[in-house]
From TrEMBL:
Residues 1-249 form the FAM91 N-terminal domain. Residues 268-307 form the FAM91 C-terminal domain. Belongs to the FAM91 family. It comes from Mesocestoides corti (Flatworm). This is Protein FAM91A1. It holds the Pfam family FAM91_C. InterPro entries: FAM91 (IPR039199), FAM91_C_dom (IPR028097), FAM91_N_dom (IPR028091).
Length: 310
């Protein structure tokens, strides 16, 4: 029940024709076939599975009950197996990507000539552009196309067909911050070393520390932290700190003049800090609160802090 290895997509999606949708569908299929609890799926795997298949805790329980009902009502002499019954219940296509950024990179997966011919003229034109920008030469992969360069409706259609995949490029110098968590699934699986390390990195994310600094502080390989950071951004559990836009010197002088004329604008905004423990957040999560407040309580419980950036 490991996470889909997004850092190996070039080999897995393009080479083996295994998309994240197919991968997580197999995981859910095997878990349901064994009638295992949803809690057996590690947290980050469950979150990615939910965003790809739309199957969370409640959906899993409902599907499992329907599957058991169909299994009991099926005739003993029919050729329909338990596996085929389950296949009919599982989704046929992936959900639209929930978290997308203009700087995400789009690349082609396993695309055949028949796949290209089956598309409309507009989709073919976009697909040709993606292929041209993903040409592999002497072991080097092309730069790909940024998501901002592709019409979103065409992107969704190609993604739905499994003809493209998305890379989330993270550099060593990038800084991340954790926004208010949405869609965070609290499955704590003990004994999973990868899950434990991901939590360790996730809880250490700081808007003022670069990825390389984070790796050095934790004593973890930089590439592993880059892969983890890319996953967190993909899931929407972290966001990249964007550098402030560069202003011409004339604008700088105008800003300085405005600060001199209005000293109040130069005063730093005050922030409020408070200390809390897990008992408070547990009460907040169990209480009858609005959905937005519950997101804040989950963030406080899992991350231990609320960012002031958003």
């Amino acid at each position: 029940m490991m996470l889909f290895p997004y850092h190996l997509q070039r080999k897995i999606v393009a080479g083996l024709r295994i998309t994240p949708f197919e991968y997580y569908k197999i995981i859910v299929h095997r878990t349901m076939l064994s009638e295992l609890s949803y809690d057996r799926i590690p947290n980050f795997t469950a979150a990615d599975c939910y965003q790809t298949l739309g199957i969370g805790r409640n959906e899993y329980i409902d599907l499992l009950n329907v599957y058991k009902g169909k299994l009991c009502s099926s005739r003993p002499n029919t050729p329909e197996s338990s596996s085929s019954i389950l296949d009919e219940l599982l989704p046929k296509y992936p959900l639209n990507c929930k978290h997308l950024e203009p700087w995400f990179i789009v690349r082609t997966g396993a695309v055949s000539v028949d796949d290209v011919r089956a598309q409309t003229h507009d989709v073919q034109a976009v697909l040709d552009r993606i292929i041209d920008n993903c040409v592999v030469d002497e072991g080097n992969i092309g730069s790909g196309l940024q998501l901002s360069e592709i019409p979103i409706d065409i992107f969704r259609e190609l993604y739905r067909q499994g003809l493209i995949y998305v890379d989330v490029p993270i550099r060593e110098t990038d800084c991340l911050f954790v926004p208010t968590l949405d869609g965070f699934i609290m499955n704590r699986v003990t004994g999973d070393s990868c899950e434990t390390m991901l939590y360790k990195i996730f809880l250490s994310i700081d808007a003022h520390s670069s990825v390389s600094q984070l790796a050095a502080d934790l004593g973890v390989g930089t590439q592993f932290v880059i892969n983890a950071a890319s996953l967190f951004v993909r899931l929407g559990f972290a966001q990249r700190v964007e550098p402030p836009p560069h202003k011409p010197s004339s604008e700088h002088s105008e800003d300085t003049a405005s600060l001199i004329s209005d000293p109040a604008s130069a005063i730093e905004t005050k922030k409020v800090a408070f200390i809390f423990d897990s008992t408070i957040t547990a009460y907040l999560m169990l209480g009858n609160l609005s959905a937005d407040l519950k997101k804040h309580s989950v963030t406080m419980f899992e991350v231990g802090k609320l960012t002031g950036l958003r």
